[in-house]
Specification:
heterodimer; A: about 210 residues; mainly alpha; B: about 450 residues; about 80% helix; globular
Chain lengths: ~210, ~450
């Protein structure tokens, strides 16, 4: 009798444990669904609510629909309307930073963050352009053109010397590409122009070049 | 539009899922699924997909005819042959028409649509084949068959998930909390594979092939193969997840890479439902295995792309698999794991890299290109270092021994105490959420 009782008890315990495990699993699945669902709905809402409001899609007609132009324009519009552009860019750069060793966050992102911390620039009440600003802009443009001329002269010399190198092996070519990447990473080598301005902030000229791998 | 495009994952799919919850009837859900799938498939290419969907009408007629002439075996065979011919023609002339315009170098990303059209045709063919083998009766309701052939989550969930397996869910859909939670997990992790791991390995292979180093080619081929493995397994995970969110429960269409099953194991682990269909079609359960195995792998390779290169690739893979299955397979399974790994690695690299080069001479030249002063070029070294953690995560996710190891550790930890079990489970949720968030942000960053 005692043996039977102990066996029954152990069977009951096992059944209770199984039920407990099942209920635990169900609770966990519920929590998981709630969390994942909330994340998914939030992401969906952010992209729908904070998206842009431009309505520059192609007109919906049979020709556009059959050629795929209409759906393509819809897709492009969705891509162009991605909200919080700057934040998304800097976040994606930060995520890529965690992918391995030696990744760098571009200076631009760091500067943008610093700008967001410092005081905002004063906003002028009148929307009409200031005549002094116009004068300054024309001065800047002439100086820009001068600088561009100079840089084109120097890059022309470089390209001449580079064209000699192009006849070399593919190894030297890849090294050249690497050196161009390195120079891209060091913006202090680029010519900096300090122009007189009415504001206290210094205008800076930055050139962005993208080098394909 | 692909599964991991933001417009689909954060626009099209949530709306479709929300609408599917408005009514419980399977008819409503099927109708919504058909409309959504046609819209998704015809995104940018309405004509081609309409042509592919028309084949389902012919499949339906052929299956009904087959049912009517149950007595005549020769006529049934003739009908099956006609159906195979029609589906094969649509796959090649409509689906792979895109591939012909694509560059020689095979890109899985470019082939997703052709393979989807191939998938529609293959499913139609599989359905007629099941009717021919008398595994099922011909479907009377055309819309049930259309749901099966056009369903957007069946596109990648398996080239040939049989109608027999899908029919119960088409007739009666049951969406449970468990299915939804599993579905969302699959979608999130699949998105991570396609939007984080694939681009990283794609970048590595691109740089490896474009610069000079003695081992650049080998690294490039490995990165190309692993990258495409992640692209497709990610898409399959997402499609399985979407199916679960819609009440379907399909088997997984791939298994993790392992040297245990030798080269044939690797070949079967990728798009396994398609391989399974072709194996049944070529009667690989019979005594004489060599020729059917060879023909089976040739057919699979041609299903991906009809070209001389793929014919050669299929033939080589078929010969190796046939030899493994008929003669040396048992002996090879007994050798040490390291030797087996080297054997599988060398064969996979040699045969599957044909897909990358797309040309036999380019392939031969590429594989013998061990020039360069360094072992690997500086640019490749830099990219490898820049993606080091991601590569490690990718390898852990792809190879069975490593996945199994991580799973064992988690299981042991969760068995120690209930607190640890909870911690492991919450860590799993956190990981899934982080992967999804990172994938969305990276995709958005690329689009901007």
């Amino acid at each position: 009798m005692e043996k039977e009782n102990t066996q029954l008890l152990s069977e009951n315990e096992q059944a209770i444990n199984r039920l407990k495990e099942e209920s635990d699993n169900n609770t966990f699945e519920c929590i998981k669904l709630l969390i994942l669902g909330a994340v998914f709905v939030m992401a969906f809402a952010v992209f729908i609510v904070f998206g842009g409001e431009d309505n520059d899609t192609v007109e919906l007609n049979r020709k556009n629909l059959m050629s795929g132009k209409y759906t393509e324009s819809l897709e492009n519009k969705y891509k162009a309307d991605i909200p919080f552009e700057e934040q998304v860019k800097s976040l994606s750069e930060r995520i890529s930073f965690c992918f391995g060793i030696g990744n760098k966050i571009s200076k631009k992102t760091v500067e943008e963050e610093a700008d967001s911390v410092t005081e905002e620039e004063p906003v002028y009440e009148s929307s009409a352009p200031d005549p002094s600003e116009k004068l300054l802009q024309s001065e800047e443009q002439t100086k820009h053109s001068e600088i561009e001329k100079k840089t084109s002269e120097t890059t022309g010399q470089q390209s001449k010397s580079g064209s000699k190198k192009q006849t070399d092996t593919a190894l030297s070519r890849s090294e050249e590409e690497e050196t161009s990447e390195e120079t891209e990473e060091k913006p202090q080598d680029e010519p900096q122009v300090i122009l007189p301005s009415t504001n206290n902030t210094e205008p800076s000229v930055t050139s962005v070049t993208t080098v394909k791998p | 539009m692909l599964y991991f495009d933001l417009i689909f994952i954060l626009g099209f799919f949530p709306i479709l899922t929300f609408l599917s919850f408005l009514d419980r009837s399977a008819e409503y859900k099927n109708l919504l699924l058909i409309v959504g799938s046609v819209l998704f498939l015809s995104w940018g290419r309405p004509f081609y997909v309409c042509a592919a969907l028309l084949t389902s009408v012919l499949d339906w007629f052929i299956s009904l005819l087959m049912d009517k002439i149950a007595g005549s075996r020769a006529l049934r065979k003739a009908l099956l042959f006609a159906d195979v011919l029609m589906n094969f023609s649509v796959t090649v002339f409509v689906g792979q028409d895109f591939l012909n315009k694509a560059p020689k170098c095979f890109s899985m990303l470019d082939s997703v649509l052709p393979l989807c059209i191939g998938g529609i045709c293959l499913r139609g063919m599989a359905y007629v084949f099941e009717v021919y083998r008398r595994e099922i009766r011909a479907e009377k309701n055309y819309f049930c068959l259309l749901t099966y052939t056009s369903s957007l989550h069946l596109l990648c969930a398996g080239g040939a998930v049989g109608y027999k397996a899908a029919e119960p869910a088409i007739r009666r859909r049951e969406i449970t909390i468990n299915k939804l939670s599993r579905g969302l997990t699959e979608i999130f992790l699949g998105m991570g594979k396609s939007a984080i791991l694939y681009p990283a390995f794609d970048k590595i292979s691109g740089i490896a092939f474009s610069s000079q180093g003695r081992f650049n080619v080998i690294i490039g081929i490995c990165a190309f193969l692993i990258g495409n493995y992640f692209l497709f397994t990610g898409l399959w995970d997402m499609s399985k997840g979407m199916g679960l969110a819609n009440g379907f429960d399909y088997p997984k269409n791939y298994s993790h890479l392992s040297a245990k099953g030798l080269f044939s194991g690797i070949a079967d682990s990728f798009n396994s439902s398609c391989v399974h269909f072709f194996k049944i079609a070529f009667r690989l359960d019979g005594r004489n295995k060599f020729v059917p195995t060879l023909l089976c792998y040739v057919a699979i390779a041609l299903w991906y792309k009809v070209s001389v290169t793929f014919l050669l690739m299929g033939t080589l893979a078929g010969i190796v698999c046939a030899v493994e299955q008929t003669t040396v397979g048992d002996k090879l399974r007994k050798v040490p794991a390291a030797v087996r790994f080297v054997y599988v690695f060398v064969l996979s690299t040699l045969i599957l890299s044909l897909a990358y080069y797309g040309d036999i001479t380019a392939w031969a030249r590429g594989l013998t290109n061990f020039r360069g002063d360094r072992l690997i070029s500086t640019s490749l070294e830099k990219v490898l270092l820049n993606h080091l953690w991601l590569i490690i995560i990718g390898l852990v996710c792809a190879f069975e021994p490593l996945v199994g190891g991580v799973r064992k550790i988690c299981l042991k930890a969760s068995q120690k105490s209930s607190e640890l079990c909870k911690a492991v489970r919450y860590a799993e949720i956190l990981f899934t959420v982080l992967v999804f968030a990172a994938a969305v942000i990276l995709s958005a960053g690329v689009d901007l």
